[in-house]
Amino acid sequence: MKGLLSISLILLLLVACDDENDDTRPENEVWMSTNSFLPASLEVSQGTTIRWLNNSSVTHNLVSETGLFNELLNPGGSFSYTFDDDGVFNYECTLHPGMTGSIIVGNVNGSQNGGEGGDDEDGGEDGYDDGY
Ligand SMILES: [Cu+2]
Questions:
Q1: Residue 116 and residue 84: Cα distance in Å, rounded?
Q2: Each residue's pLDDT tens digit, 72-114
Q3: Are 53 and 72 in contact (CB under 8 A)?
């Protein structure tokens, strides 16, 4: 009887863990699947740190078209990069032809997210240190 109970408990735990929730990808995270980036294109605001996570079982690399980064990510590996400039930043995994992605930073190509309080310049209240 006791043994049966333990087995039931273990089964219950297994079932609970099996609950694969793919919707838990954080907003600013790009996942590397077997042969694609997810999402392939991500729009963020300036200063956003993007984290790439290789949650596949194969090794990928992350090569910026403009030389910003060149990383090799083993399964389970991750890499973060902060985009301080507006623009479209393309990257690819050179190990898998066609595995490309882009990060779109800020207001480019007249995109129409016109003004949800994004660009005010009140960021520098401690900017006096070199004023002599
Ligand atoms: Cu790859």
A1: 19
A2: 999 999 999 999 999 999 999 999 999 999 999 998 765 444 4
A3: no
pTM exceeding 0.85: no
- How far does the centroid of ligand 1 lie from the alpha carbon of residue 122, in Å? 41
- Taking the centre of ligand 1 as the mean of its atom positions, its distance from the CA of residue 127, in whole angstroms, is 43
Q: Which of 55, 61, 62, 53 is nearest to 29 (CA)?
A: 53
Alpha-carbon Rg for the chain in angstroms: 21
Q: Which domains are seen in the chain, by residue range? A: 25-105 (2.60.40.420)
| 95 alpha carbon – ligand 1 mean position (Å) | 5
Residue 8, classed as helix, strand or coil, is helix
Count CA atoms closer than 13 A to 65's CA, side-chain side: 11
